[in-house]
Amino acid sequence: MTDLSALKYTEEHEWIAADDGTVTIGITDYAAGQLGDIVFVDLPEVGTEITAGEVCGEIESTKSVGDFFAPITGTVVEVNQDVIDDPSIVNSAPFEGGWLIKVEASDSVDGVDDLLEREAYVALTGGDA
User: Fold this and answer.
1) Domain assignments of the chain as residue spans, ordered by start
2) Which of these, 4, 36, 48, 119, could form a disulfide with 44 (CB 3.0-4.6 Å)?
3) What is the pTM of this model?
4) How far is residue 20's CA from residue 105's CA, in Å, rounded to a whole number?
5) How far, in Å, CA of 19 to CA of 24, rounded?
6) Does domain 7-114 have CATH number 2.40.50.100?
7) Is the separation of the CB atoms in 58 and 67 below 8 Å?
8) Strand partners of residue 27
9) What is the pLDDT of residues 71-107, one digit of tens each?
10) 73: left (phi over 0), alpha (psi -120 to 50) or beta
11) Using an 8 Å Cβ cutoff, are 59 and 66 in contact?
12) How far is CA 47 from CA 77, 84, 103, in A?
């Protein structure tokens, strides 16, 4: 089980886990629950430059289509093919197998200062996270 308190969060309901310059990004269990059954994900390709705060993909559910925002600036180095093949993994394991992309953060690490600790994210969601 992932230590949720070690992750950082955005107000748009993404989470990030940093590991030696590579950042793993996904959506939170709260976001997955709000979306409902996820049926399709559109993610940036490896090599794509993403910019903090900008839309870099979409997540489609049986209820709606939601934007996937880049929480940091950097270059996509890996895309979770398992999630593309079976998007429901995001619902069943958003913090483990349901991660979306891995990014090599830019030197400036734009966006990191805006990230929330777990306690602040839980407060943002009204305690539902």
Assistant:
1) 7-114
2) 48
3) 0.90
4) 10
5) 8
6) yes
7) yes
8) 14
9) 999 999 999 999 999 999 999 999 999 999 999 988 6
10) beta
11) yes
12) 6, 17, 9
